[in-house]
Amino acid sequence: TFINSEANAVATQMSAFYERKKRAWEMLNTSNRKTGKLDTSKIAKYKTSDNIFQKQSNAKEGANHGLTIVVDWSSSMYEVIAEMAQQLLVVMLYCKKSNIKFQVYFFTGDGAIGFSTHNDIPLFESLMYGSFTFKKMLTHTASVADIQNFAINMIMYSFDMNGRIKSDVKIPNMAGTPLQDAAVSAYTAAQEFKMLHNIENNSIMFIT
User: Fold this and answer.
1) 8 A C-beta contact, residue 104 and residue 85
2) Is residue 29 within 8 Å of residue 165, measured between CB atoms?
3) Where are the alpha helices (DSSP H) in the chain?
4) CA 106, CA 207: separation in Å to the nearest integer?
5) DSSP readout, 30-48?
6) Which residue from 81, 103, 130 is spatially nearest to 202, judged by alpha carbons?
7) CA distance 152 to 175
8) CA pair distance 168, 128, nearest whole angstrom
9) Buried b vs exposed e over 173-192: b needs ≥16 C-beta within 10 Å?
10) Burial profile 36-49: b = 16 or more Cβ within 10 angstroms, e = fewer
11) Can you give the pTM of this predicted structure?
């Protein structure tokens, strides 16, 4: 019920608020100036008003946004997987509705040492842990159905039923909490994402 209706309703409200804020900013940053050309519909008022010239509006569009979402997939999060999946689902649906480009990474202290970017090039060895995973799971190109299925798979992981919903994305095993490694990797991933998509307003969100 939450995935099919409630999450979508919350995401819609968030998107509507975002659009209102964006439109308000655009209106505040729109300037009008006289062009020097006569507005023929106002010529009859020339004796009582000097406002008889055509105006030109210079509208400034709101900046395009990008979001890098980093999910703490350590063992200590096991008891709150369902709540975490719900939060992630709402944020991803909100981004889809608002045309905000996003990418989702999971981090955990298990698996191959390294860091994967959009081109899967390892960045560095773990700073603190013997093993470290920072894995890209989804991006804004995923369909709404894929996003919903991914949230279901996250929840099913807590019942040791990972992968029952058809998905090409394998969820890593939960382990330690290499937060320092994840913070450095998140910054690098966000900067790369910014350059890749020419993002003006670039943000990082940790779900932990």
Assistant:
1) no
2) no
3) 7-28, 81-97, 144-157, 179-197
4) 10
5) -EEEEEEEE-GGGGGGTTT
6) 103
7) 20
8) 30
9) ebbbbbbebbebbbebbbeb
10) eeeeeeeeeeeeee
11) 0.73
What are 156-194's pLDDT values in tens digits?
A: 888 775 555 556 677 888 888 888 888 988 999 999 999
Q: Are 42 and 52 in contact (CB under 8 A)?
A: yes
Sign of the dihedral through C-alpha 207, 135, 178, 79 = positive
pLDDT digits (tens, 9 = 90+) for 15-47: 888 888 887 767 776 655 555 565 566 655 555
Contact of 101 with 67, CB cutoff 8 Å: yes
H or E element at residue 106: strand 101-108
Q: Which of 73, 64, 69, 34 lies closest to 51, judged by CA?
A: 34
Q: Which two tokens stand for residue 3?
A: 């995935």
Q: Helices 144-157 and 81-97 meet at what angle, rounded to 10?
A: 170
Tokens of 17: 């608020």
- Enter the tokens of residue 187: 């910054």
**83-100 burial string, b = 16+ CB within 10 Å, else e?**
ebbbbbbbbbbbbbbbeb
| Residue with tokens 């209102």, as numbered in its chain | 20
Q: Coil, strand or helix: which one is 198?
A: coil
Residue 153 structure tokens: 């798979």
Closest among 129, 105, 88, 131 to 188, alpha carbons compared: 105
